[in-house]
Design brief:
- The protein is of the alpha/beta class.
- 55% of the residues lie in helices and 12% in strands.
- Strands 1, 2, 3, 4, 5, 6 and 7 form a seven-stranded mixed β-sheet that branches.
- A hairpin with a 2-residue loop joins strand 2 and strand 3.
- The radius of gyration is 23 Å and the shape is elongated.
Length: 282
Amino acid sequence: MKVELYNDIVASIRKFRGLSKDCRDMLKEKYSEIPVNTLYSILSLEIQHKMKVNHSKLFGNNKNYYDTYVEAVQSGEPVGILLKMAKDIGAPPALLARNILEKHCGKDDPNFSRNEVSKLFKDTTLIQDKDLAYEIYLCILYDNLYGPIADAIGISVGQEYELKLQNFLTERNLSFRNEEHLRSRGYDKTPDFKLEVPIAVNGFVINWIESKARFGNIEIHQKYIKEQFLSYWNRFGPGLVIYWFGFLDNLTKPSEKRFIIMDHFPENITYMDPSCIKPTAC
């Protein structure tokens, strides 16, 4: 993706006032030519960055959203109080809901553990205050970026694209070891798939492949290089990173010799013949 287009999408997200689900619908309509998974991934990255920068400001000790919620309930405001509050303060509903739940649990028992809060958050039917339980449930249901439902969806999508990659490898008769096998052999940091016999793509030798079911921007790519890709390169040599939902054009550098980046499984593969020094194209 061109940097100019990416910046335009980010600017649209930052100008939007409302919840992430509504912003998602706006992006889908405004940028109809761009795959929806790409738009959603960019939105997710931008909201996560915003929360990383503003979390202490939004949820610092000087903030008391719980009292505001209680006052709203006592005033007879209709259901959806926390969703409205989240929209007003510009916070993901699930994060606000957890903050409210922590305050609610701590008002009678200051020693209430975060693990117990997490248990209630994941199963709101365990919350004794049924009105609060429903408010928190709505926040979790309406938040497409944070909370147990969003987490489950994220894990599911990641597994879906790993399986998609595995199917590509199997269909092309490529022998590989997956992450689970590599960890059983003692490797602490492992790619999704390590090829038993390397392949070449456009003259670049590939020993491993990493699947990323998200959009690759500069910040997230640099994070992955530091935390994952360099370790793979040190252990196994050069490899391939697939950002299934696209990536910024300026991430690809001709001087990069450790890995190449694509947004799909390569079509033109040169298979290595272990019995020969030179590869033979198939």
